[in-house]
Protein: Tyrosine--tRNA ligase
Amino acid sequence: MKNFIEEVTWRGMLHDVMPGTEEHLMEQMRVAYVGIDPTADSLHIGHLVGVMLLKHFQIAGHKPLALVGGATGMIGDPSGKSNERNLLDEATLRHNQESIKEQLGRFLDFTSDAPNAAELVNNYDWMKNFSFLDFIRDVGKHITVNYMMAKDSVKKRLSSESAEGMSFTEFTYQLVQGYDFLHLYKDKKCTLQMGGSDQWGNITTGTELVRRIESGKAYALTCPLITKADGTKFGKSEGGNIWLDAARTSPYKFYQYWLNTSDIDAEKYIKIFTFLSKEEIEDLTEKHREAPHLRLLQKKLAEEITVMVHSAEDLENAIKASNILFGNSTADDLKQLNEKTFLEVFDGVPQAEIARAEIEAGIDIVTVLNEKTGFMKSNGEARRALTANSISVNREKVKEDFVLSNNDLINNQFVLLQSGKKNYFVVRVV
Structure:
């Protein structure tokens, strides 16, 4: 067995661990699970730490279980939240589960015959036929209210700071999650639950149920909640969550998120979100510190994680798209961008619309620059810029005799105007 605890410790992925866990894992192949909230049909990068924990667990020779919380997703976990979540119906949860399993398959081996092949389980499968009376008799009587009230997640919600209070539904959440651990202990020989540091209270309720009901020994391990050095929330951009689904967050935007990481965060994230060895990371970090302007850490981090979540081809396209603004890209490079990526690359760049009929008839560049777009304040300014050779159409320099036509359209609908190195303008043909 490889030493899983040692691995996640140097990677900065260990927050708290129950005594005896390391020795327990070194004895033989063990089974551990991480719970995943199925409230959307895609994981986002906030889920990735738990997924990476499961992957390292599998690499170390152990068996990972990914638990999709179909039942708990219907209730809502109070940990770290100030109010209740929307509850989902079963059909939506099943759809989300299938989508999540497909994404997890990029990280975990579900399909091999190896004894430590990963499994996906859904707590709705064992909770759906559990009556309320059976639950409070068979599970509830083993845990005191005093024990449940002592949990930080409960205390915070019942404190004077929380105007919302806490419903009975959410109060029972830790019992339902605790029962998951008990069920997997009995059914799958699962002896370890892992999760974020805000889950410690819920996880230890599970270890307590295993002890009281089965007289067994179960373990808990948590990882730190990922933060950013500037205090803003990890995993969020101005447009919301950074999703693993390319339809929700394009590979270009995904790549850009990691590329724009600060130096401090990049040193931390490259250990957590890649499988590079300690030696490789130390070597790369040293080179980065010698020449931080080259952003070696950010580039490597963005490359590794984009290939892992998407593909090598998606990475290549994301790099090409990134070079449009900052590199020596050509008209051909521009024409390879799909509409979504083109608009993302030039997000925030001023735009104007020109009728398709006018483009088909051909419009002289001076008219385009001033009258049709307002990119230049006057025809005279447009002519001076053209004479100075500072105007480009789709990255190619043009003169005053240039006529804009159908042949110049990117994706049959856009034209990119540029004045000097950094002033861009997008023409949309309608």
The CA atoms of residues 370 and 378 lie 6 Å apart.
